[in-house]
Amino acid sequence: MNYSALIQNRKSVREFADKKVSAAALAEIETYYQKSCQRLVPDLETKLCVFGEEAKEALEGAAGYESFLVGAPNYLVLLSAKGDQAGENAGFMMEDMVLKLTDMELGCCWITFTDSEKVKAALKIDSPLDVAAIVAFGQGLKTTKRLRVNILSMSNVDIAAQRQYFAPKHGLHDMVFMDTWGNTQGVDEYIGFYDDMLWEALYAATLSPSYLNRQPYGFIIHEGQITLVKAPDSYTDEIDAKLGLGIVLLHFSSTASQWAGKIKWSFGADAAKLQLPEGYEAVASCKL
Ligand SMILES: Cc1cc2nc3c(=O)[nH]c(=O)nc-3n(C[C@H](O)[C@H](O)[C@H](O)COP(=O)(O)O)c2cc1C
Questions:
Q1: What is the architecture of the domain spanning 172-287?
Q2: Which one of 127, 206, 223, 272 is most buried, by most CB atoms within 10 A?
Q3: Signed CA dihedral, 167, 172, 176, 181: sign only
């Protein structure tokens, strides 16, 4: 897959054509998951379940932004064993599935949830694994209107609004720092410009989808290492925070690996060395 192009083209789709996803397409999704889906923690047991439109009713009240659940012909639910980085791994894997769906020209949207057991009960999932990630998908409705969700607050999310109001994504200079959090001096010299590979990987990271589009994270470049840092955010709970970190790692890694080979992350970098402000956490580092 051409990750850079897919990442730039992807956007959340919340309106779907009244058309079934073909059995062949569902089989292709399943095969991709089994054979190609990228993993952050390869040894962690996971399982992908596919549900039809009946899942919408079942999920009502168990998933989705407070005021509405995206109704779609199908839903992907990723189950995972518990373990270190299980949440980040789920974000990483499911975002790879999202980009596969994008590659197949299917539209999709991440769906938040807070209680694995509640979702399992609603969907009658009988498994010792936890619900780790949910995505709605189908044939996106072709529309000339630029439909984006209108996020004013958690309890005021409105899809019908055609007014183009949504929080913009963070730019590179809001997200990439040199040596200490917030310091942008020297970043441009280090990461180069549009045709530079590191720039491209970090740009891909800025396009990551996140819960309520909050993007509570950033990168610090220090002594040749790139460290992903989690920023505190009172809106984003632990599940969505970890999914978001996994998603941003997938965006960065899948783009960077096009020139640097497989990116190896080590988790829990030396936070003290980075002099992070209170409440910030070093998540993972890699050397390029
Ligand atoms: C973990 C996670 C949970 C999300 N939950 C929902 C949701 O329940 N409903 C929804 O409409 N969008 C949901 N989104 C989509 C975000 O609102 C969307 O990614 C963000 O607004 C950025 O827009 P974009 O995906 O078009 O780039 C979620 C995204 C993530 C990553």
A1: 3-Layer(aba) Sandwich (3.40)
A2: 206
A3: negative
Residue type, 75: Y
Residue spans per domain, the chain: 3-158, 172-287
Q: What is the pLDDT of residues 173-227, one digit of tens each?
A: 999 999 999 999 999 999 997 779 999 999 999 999 999 999 999 999 999 999 9
Per-residue pLDDT, 66: 75
Q: How far is the CA of 149 from the centre of ligand 1 (A)?
A: 9
Alpha helices by DSSP H, listed for the chain, are 3-9, 23-35, 54-59, 86-103, 116-122, 172-175, 187-191, 197-206, 238-260
Which residues lie below 8 Å from residue 269, measured CB to CB, with a gap of 6+? 225, 227, 282, 283, 284, 285
Cα-to-centroid distance, 7 and ligand 1 (Å): 15
Instruction: Give the mutation target among 93, 111, 243 for probing the ligand 1 site: most ligand atoms within 8 A of CB.
Output: 111
CB 162 within 8 A of CB 212: no
